[in-house]
C-alpha cells in the first residue's frame, strides 16, 4: 500500500530498510536524571517500531555551542559510554541511529555564545562574541571531534545541523554574517564554514559512516539565502562528502509558522522538490508530514527520496510498523499542537506528547495486562474518558463508557472545526478505532444516573464528565444576542457580521479564528498555495529568504476580542504557538481590547466601560468564552456510598481546556487500576 515509503534506500555502504527518518527533537532526556537510560528506552521503542533511521536531539560539540548551561554535549571521551547505552539499545532492535551535532551560535541561552558577527538574536538573551579566525578553526575542529566520538559511541552516522538559524546557518546568510575576511563577504566565503566541517568530518570518520547535512532550503528571514545560493551550497555539500541532505525550513526567529497545526500537511515538500535532480545524493522532505498517506504522496510526486517525521514518533512509536501491517487507522496521529513537546522544551521541561503521555516516559508509564480483571464505568467520552477507556480496555478490563451526547470526542469536536485545528479530528478517529479494538462497550446518548452506576456493581468508576461553559452575570446575559462558545462551535448557531467575544484565553482566540474565516472557503491550513499566500511565503523564490507581502483573506466579520485584565492578549497561550494565533488575528484585523468592564447587553448592543470610558459596541452577537465550570455531578455522592470513584480531567480542574493534562491524568490512573 505504501510501496515507495516502505521500500529500502541504498546508501552504497549501507541500506536503510525504508524511507522514513525519525527527525531530530530535543527531548531534554539527556539532561534528566538517568536520562541516557530513559533515552535508550525511548529510541529503542521507535527502532522496534521499524523506523528506517533515527536522528537524536541536538548534541553540542562543545560548551559554547550548547543550548543552555548543562545541556548535552559530546566533546570528551568520558562521555562516550553514556551514548553507547542508546546505540546498543537501538541496534538490538535492528535499528540505525545518527547523532545530531548542533551548535547554537547566537541562539545559545548562556553568555558564552559565539557567532560569525556580534549580532544578538531576537529570541536569545545574550549578545554573541564574534569569532576570530582561530576561533572559527576551533569550532570546526569541535564538530570533527564530536563526530569521531559519536562514531566511537556506535552511532551509524551524524547529522550536521546547518539550518534553522543555528551557527552554521549564521555563517551562510548575509543577515548574520557581516564579516569581511575569508569567512564572510562573497557567498563562496560564507559557505566555507559548512563545507569545511563536512569535508573534515568525512576525512575523519572514513567512507562507511552516514553524514546527513541539514540544509536550510528556505530561510524565511530578510537577507536569507537565494534559491541559486541554496543549490550552490547543496552541490558543494555533496562534493564535501555528505551522504544525505535533509531539508531545513525557516529560522527559529522567522515569523512564518512552519510546523504548527495551521501548516498544511506536507506544506513545504515543494521546496525539496525544487532541489531534486540538482544533486546525486538522497534528499529528505520534512515538516507536517504526519500520516503514511501524506508521506507516500510526497515520495510518489517526486518531492524527495525520503521523508522526515519528528513529532509523529512522539505520538506513535509504531507508526511505521502499523503502516507495514496496513493498520494506518490505528496510528495515533500527531496533531501538531506543540503543547507537550516544543512548549515543554522551551520551558526546560521534559518532552512528552499530548496524545501519547508515554512518549519519553517509556520507563515509567506502561499499559501492562491487568493482574485482576475489573468491571469499570467511565462517565464522559471527551479526551480524559477516551484515554481512560482505551487504556483500561488494552489492559483487559471490562469497560462501559457512557456519553450523554451522540458522539465521542467531547471538546475536541469543537476544536476540530477551528480553521487550523482540523487535525484534532484525527484524535477522535484514533480513539474510535481503539475503543472497538479493545472491546469497550460504548453507550452514546446515555446520560447515566447515579442509581444506574450504583446498581452496575462496578469495581471502579471514573468521572470524566468534562466542563460546561461558565455563565456570565451582567444585565442582559440571557439576551438573544448572547451565545456561549458551545452554542457556536457545537450547536452551529448563526453569528452576525459584528461580534464581541468575551474572554481572550485559548477559547476566545479559537472563537475569533473561527469567526474570522469565510465559512464558504476552506481553511488555508488545507491548501499549501493559499497558506503560503496568506502568510507571505514566495513560492517563486524570487529573492533571498523567499518572503513576500502577506495576503490574508479578509475577515467576513468585524470582531472585538475583549478581556477584563490589562496586558497582552493570549499571554497564557502556548509558548511556541501563541505568537501564531496573535499574528493570525492581527492579519484578520480583529480588534483586541483590554481593561474592559462588562455592563449590559440590550438591543442597542454591548455596553462596556473601557479604560474608564463608557462605550456601546453595536454588535449583532456577544459570544461568551469566559472559561468553564467543572461537571462533577455524582462524584461526592458515589464517594459517600463507599464506591471506588475517581475524578479526572476538566471535571476535576477546569482552569482552561487542557487536553494534555486530561489525557495524562487518565493514562497514569488507568495504567495502575
Concise account of the structure shown:
The strands form seven sheets. The protein has an eight-stranded parallel beta barrel with strand order 3-4-5-8-9-10-11-12, surrounded by seven helices.
Describe what you observe in this structure:
In the N-terminal section; belongs to the NADH:flavin oxidoreductase/NADH oxidase family. Residues 374-643 form the FAD/NAD(P)-binding domain. One of its GO terms (biological process) is fatty acid beta-oxidation, unsaturated, even number, reductase/isomerase pathway. With 673 residues, the chain is an alpha/beta fold. It folds into three domains: 16-289, Aldolase class I (TIM Barrel); 375-468 and 630-672, Rossmann fold, CATH 3.40.50; 472-517 and 555-626, 3-Layer(bba) Sandwich (FAD/NAD(P)-binding domain). Helix content is 30%, strand content 17%. The chain contains 22 helices and 27 strands. The strands form seven sheets. The chain has an eight-stranded parallel β-barrel, surrounded by seven helices. A five-stranded parallel β-sheet has the order 15-14-13-16-27. Helix 3 runs parallel beside helix 6, helix 6 packs parallel to helix 7 (227-240) and helix 13 (383-394) runs parallel beside helix 22. The longest helix has 20 residues, at 133-152. The model has no long low-confidence stretch (mean pLDDT 95).
